[in-house]
Specification:
The protein has 368 residues and is α/β, with parallel strands linked by helices. It contains 18 helices and twelve strands.
Length: 368
């Protein structure tokens, strides 16, 4: 029963590692709570911890457990334990899996083919564009994209997968009944329709800073590999990459301009041995040999850019070639192409309608 899991978790001194170790040994949290003091000590508990388990949660904690169970039922939240056969198999194999996963939306077998994409919250326009392209192509190839719903790169990763009609999973650093940041409420709802929101944090708990490093191990644990598209030195994204390496996952990085702060972290990863990637197919090529045949056949080739509609006209091609993944103004394009302002604006609108370019605030444009 869920109540037994929550009771065990509410006991002082019983951390996640201890819970997982005990319930795996005793086969259920109820058996742990019913074990004698001597049996608990024989299973590796200290006398103080054994006494605490025998006492169980205090009255205040018991009331909190009752309220949490009511909230879970009211919000229609699914909870899977580490002993549940539907618990994500890859996550279950890490050294410290979450004892409980709170889920809204739906986790499916398809999510065994998952890749995480993480990066800077203060991402550049180029970083967001590259992230959306990678995420879109990976999702289109049949892979689930995992990220953390944060501003910047995380949001771009989720949006790219959704744009491809693919699956995406967001891992929260707060209670699953909260959305952080709050402006991503609509994005969260879209993810729930096409994937899942996941958290290990109890219902109602705010997004405290110490939750996020723990959250990162779930992002990497759910995935075959982790892609870092932009990251400053010392960022949380690099923590995710380190955890991925410790978990035996592949680590990928997108190279960036050496003077750009948000590229210093990714370039450092490349120096340390991360795989350099330029497109989704680079990721797929690295991961395919690791997959069982049954999973391998579900992955479709990606990365070859699909050109929709008629080929670009001469002047359209000229304007397209003048753009890059760094935002350009209309004046920049005029200076490069020597076309008039009115013609450039018309051609940019045409390219935008053909989804060849994206307009950013301030009438800046970049390739897509």
């Amino acid at each position: 029963m869920l109540e037994h899991w929550l009771c065990l978790r509410a006991i002082d001194g019983v951390g996640d590692l201890t819970i997982v170790r005990l319930v795996r040994a005793w086969r259920s949290p109820e058996a742990v709570l019913c074990a004698s003091r001597d049996e608990l000590i024989q299973s590796g508990c200290s006398p103080l911890l054994a006494d605490a388990i025998r006492r169980g949660p205090d009255r205040s904690s018991s009331r909190s457990i009752e309220r949490e169970i009511q909230a879970i039922e009211r919000e229609h939240v699914e909870v899977r334990s580490v002993l549940d056969s539907r618990y994500p198999a890859r996550l279950n194999m890490i050294a410290d899996p979450p004892p409980l996963l709170y889920i809204t939306g739906t986790l499916t077998e398809q999510d065994e083919l998952a890749v995480a994409i993480v990066g800077a919250r203060r991402a550049t326009a180029a970083g967001r564009a590259v992230t959306e392209e990678l995420s879109h192509d990976l999702a289109e190839a049949g892979m689930t994209v995992v990220s953390g719903l944060a501003r910047g790169i995380d949001a771009a990763a989720h949006r790219g997968a959704l744009a491809a009609g693919g699956r995406t999973i967001a891992v929260l650093g707060c209670g699953i009944d909260r959305t952080y940041p709050s402006e991503h409420e609509q994005l969260r709802r879209q993810i729930e329709e096409r994937g899942a929101i996941v958290s290990e944090v109890a219902m109602g708990v705010a997004p405290h800073s110490h939750h996020f490093p723990r959250r990162n191990r779930i992002i990497s644990g759910l995935s075959l590999g982790v892609i870092v598209t932009e990251a400053a030195v010392g960022s949380g994204s690099l923590i995710t990459a380190r955890l991925a390496a410790e978990q035996g996952r592949e680590v990928f990085a997108v190279p960036g301009f050496v003077k750009q702060d948000t590229s210093r972290g990714t370039n450092a990863l490349l120096k340390e041995g991360a795989a350099l990637i330029e497109c989704a197919q680079d990721v797929i090529d690295a991961l395919l040999p690791q997959l069982e045949p049954a999973l391998r056949v579900r992955v479709q080739p990606s990365c070859e850019k699909k050109v929709s509609g008629d080929p670009l006209g001469k002047e359209e091609q000229l304007v397209y070639d003048a753009l890059s993944y760094d935002p350009s103004t209309v004046d920049d394009v005029v200076a490069s192409t020597r076309l008039s302002v009115s013609i450039v604006i018309g051609l940019l609108l045409s390219l935008e309608l053909r989804q060849q370019v994206t307009q950013l605030p301030g009438q800046r444009y970049l390739r897509t």
